[in-house]
Design brief:
mainly alpha
């Protein structure tokens, strides 16, 4: 068995252990439940509103977009947070010291973050299926949802790894969070993107969050709802193309940037970051 294969299997095992650990930690369970409950409550309040010009609940239109947003935020924010946190506490340095340790570490993070993201999606989707009417739930719908989720994770997680590698500590996550929330706001997650000015529609379509929302809407909504989308269609080929482009960019850039980041890791740099963190801690 090759060293890469061994590292990959170790990474998978590590990712499963870390994922299982999150399911037994109260703080992590709260991080799963609170956003899901908050989103469901928001969509419940939206049930009285309809899609302009159509007899369809705005909450049912919003649910698939929220699922797409969860995929994007899971891949981008969760992975970046994990990397910055474990860079500061020395976990990355220990992984670097093991042959092919960085490869195994990344495999483990991919397993863990993918699992966390899918759990978060299930906590929104399962109650949403029972609470909101009009969703299209066929075999074809679930297959479409599957490829959108898989391609979406492939498109976002490498970018999340790049962002996490560029940040020096978890306290710098605001540099990612604020722009990401701005992108969510112009991505048509909570209302049709056609309601935005034309130039903001163009900005929203650059990033994967819009396309993830569009892909999940195409999976879970009736075809008639495509009338409220840009070009009045689900644009599946464009969805695949844009998400694949982000995936390629991330898969090319992430290994290069991660290797450079790993080369800069040393015991002294970890100690310096810990000392800064202790100085900032309240006393």
């Amino acid at each position: 068995m090759s060293a890469i294969t061994t590292a990959g299997r170790s990474g998978i095992a590590r990712g499963r252990i870390e994922l299982r650990h999150t399911l037994t930690t109260p703080q992590d369970l709260w991080a799963y439940l609170f956003p899901a409950v908050a989103l469901i409550v928001v969509m419940i309040f939206m049930r009285g509103s309809g899609v302009p010009g159509m007899n369809f609940s705005l909450s049912s239109l919003t649910l698939p977009g929220v699922i797409g947003m969860n995929v994007a935020l899971g891949g981008l924010i969760n992975l970046a947070t994990q990397l910055t946190t474990e860079r500061e506490d020395g976990t990355l340095l220990r992984a670097k010291a093991v042959p092919n340790g960085m490869f195994g570490y990344l495999v483990g993070k991919i397993v863990q973050v993918s699992g966390m993201t899918l759990i978060g999606i299930a906590l929104v989707l399962i109650p949403g299926v029972f609470l909101f009417d009009g969703l299209e739930l066929t075999v074809g719908s679930w297959l479409t949802l599957l490829w959108v989720l898989v391609l979406g994770l492939i498109a976002t997680m490498p970018i999340g790894a790049v962002l996490g590698s560029l940040l020096s500590s978890p306290r710098s996550m605001g540099m990612i969070m604020l722009p990401t929330m701005g992108i969510v706001a112009v991505s048509g997650v909570f209302y049709p993107i056609t309601a935005l000015p034309t130039w903001l529609q163009g900005v929203g379509q650059i990033f994967p969050i819009y396309w993830l929302g569009l892909g999940t809407r195409s999976a879970l909504l009736p075809n008639s709802l495509s009338a409220v989308e840009l070009t009045h269609s689900w644009r599946p080929l464009e969805t695949v193309g844009v998400l694949a482009m982000w995936a390629i960019v991330g898969l090319v850039a992430a290994p290069i940037i991660l290797r450079r980041m790993a080369r800069r890791e040393s015991g002294s740099s970890v100690a310096a970051r810990r000392e800064k963190a202790m100085l900032r801690a309240p006393r």
